[in-house]
Amino acid sequence: MATIEQNLGLCGLDKSDIELYLFLAKTGRQNVGRIEQASSFSRATVYNSLQRLEKHDLVEKNREGRSVFYSITHPQHLSLLAEYKKQEMELLTHDMKKHIEHLTGTYNLTLGKPGVRFYEGEEGAKEVLQDTLQARGEIFAYVNMDIVEAYVKRLNERYMAERKRHGKVKKIILPDTSAAKNFVKKIDDKLTQVKLISKTVCPFETSLQIYNDKISYLTVYKKNLLTFVITHPGIANMQKALFSFMWQHLPSPSR
């Protein structure tokens, strides 16, 4: 079993915080002068530690005339500190997984392998859409507007507004549905170009975006929103060629 000093250190307290906290726990209420005498730290360090301990609700101060006394709060507050640290570590673990996914894709590219990243939920879709704003040229996309309307309507509206601010041109091929036709009617800028394809000839349900050396897929599986990003120049160039061929042979929609 770890000592209390070790556990307090794991909760983010430094050496002076731990020493002063345990001193007050043993001796009760004390003023700064007495605390300084009993410790090996300077007055400035003592004040800084007491402020940090107050911030964590581990110490409280009381004034009596011109004197200020410090004492520990109920030890139960230590469990709150541990819980906060636990949540902080869970957030760190979550963020680190994202960093690992990104670095894995980059690492694979250095080995000549396609870089692949995977995301779940709306936050993942948002991250991928934001990445398309780094496109060095036109963005090509196959989009299923029914899925967009059902799962990421507001996110897509915010993304479109931001894409316009960045001046990014996007060519989109849509299955010819009522949702797609409504989308075409609402287009009011030259940055968004759309062509429709028969939903019986090409009834795709996955949205795909092609830009730079990347291809992103957005799909729904068992009502879960999933996004994949593949980074590989050869694969991206092939998809760009296929898209361009299809784009050339599709008629422009009537407004």
From TrEMBL:
Any one Gene Ontology molecular-function term assigned to this protein's record: DNA-binding transcription factor activity
Which SMART domains did the record assign? HTH_ARSR
Residue ranges of domain HTH arsR-type in the record: 8-86
Q: Which PANTHER family match?
A: HTH-TYPE TRANSCRIPTIONAL REGULATOR TRMBL2 (PTHR34293)
What is the name listed in the Swiss-Prot or TrEMBL entry for this protein? HTH arsR-type domain-containing protein
Q: Which organism is it from?
A: Candidatus Kerfeldbacteria bacterium RIFOXYB2_FULL_38_14
